[in-house]
Amino acid sequence: MSTPALPLQPSAPAAPKLTDLEIKDAQLIFSSVWQRLEEEFGRENLRFPKEIILLGGAPGSGKGTNTAFITQARGLTCPPIVISALLDSPEAKSLKDGGNMVGDREVVGLLLRRPDPKPPMFALAD
To answer: Does a structural domain hold residue 15?
Structure first.
């Protein structure tokens, strides 16, 4: 004789914490970085390119090659933002020297923490 199945009660998902070592939710990452930028510079002083083209991929997948192609095809005159160069910035080095990870939130913060009174129309990040 089989036991009747009990109805499953849906459990409430745990709310993500901003104190986690690495957050994978893009909205939480962006909101956290945006709030810090507004506090540091003031919303009225934030200026960004109209469009950011972000190339992702494994090392050796052709991001650098395609950066040159996209720059030429789109007529971009601004230099590309190379993410690996951001990871060599003083901010990232201090995190690494302290034994911490440079996670998605920190990389987005480094990318957007480049206040420019006249930002280019486009930015290409590889």
So the answer is: no
